[in-house]
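Please check this record.
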Amino acid sequence: MGICIDDGDIFNSHDVVSLFTNTPIEKCLDIIKERLKNDKTLKDRTKLNTEDIIELLQFILTTTYFSFRGQIFRQIFGAAIGSPVSAIVANLFMEWLEKEAIMTAPLDCKPKYWRRYVDDVLEIIQKDTTLKLTEHLNTIDPTGSIKFTHEEEDQGKIPFLDTLIVRKEDGSVKMLVYRKKTHTDQYLNFKSQYPLHQKLGVIRTLKKNILETSDAVYKIPCKGCDKSYVGETGRQFGVRLKEHRKDSETVKDTKFTKAKRKASTSEQHKSAITDHVAQENHVINWEGASILDKDSNAVSRRIRESIQIPKVGFHILVIRIMLPAAGKNNRCNRTGLGR
């Protein structure tokens, strides 16, 4: 994450209770009206003036009707769940609230780090100030409808959205993919009636999570044969995958004479994937790359890497030579494809 946390600080998260249905509409309209008045580019984007927009917005936000058991009801407070405008209005209100909260927070509980996604907030604060900060946040909304709950880190770990944030002994921080205990690995049924863009969004999100995973043992298969590359990295998987791909495609796209091609096949490149591309002229299945295991400890991660080799298939070869000589550079590491 690129941040460090001191021994006297903790990670803490806050969450708004039922944001949409507790969003104060009148206060939102005042906030939006003020922002529109200060928007110098508004006239370039629409022929409507501020009063026109506010009138239309008020009509949309205060005329929400729904039926239940044969009766028709009107929502008299908050924003409607499912309305496209609700998310925008609620987020604008939260932008105002967080600015007020941070600006007026007492010094002893003022967050050192603050990141928000809609109604979920992650903070770094001093130990034993969580309750005081929560009480402060709960006083910002003039209607008293917006209330926060909180959760402190537990044993140096705290879930935030779909990530698990872990503080290391040196104060640095790493992120893992977080799954609740009730998680079943079941997502949208592609044959369901959800819009296509939502189904594709699930796939894109899962792919993004995989690429941002660090401390991983991974596999990259070859399209031209049944061999696969097994490797490990302490960095983000997506970053390491890009490095592999760049090196391999540099060799693949190079215009070789017959003599240079022969020389390239005997040359040892940065990774065994590049060697395989140069020697066999095969295409790597980058889209088929996957994470096999995870471990934050470098030594045990390499052990896990070796354990994964026989599980993946019979056409994988990993050679790791440990040199007995003392010194920082006493290990020669070669991980690759082969029989």
Summary: The longest strand covers residues 9-16. The first helix runs from residue 19 to 22.
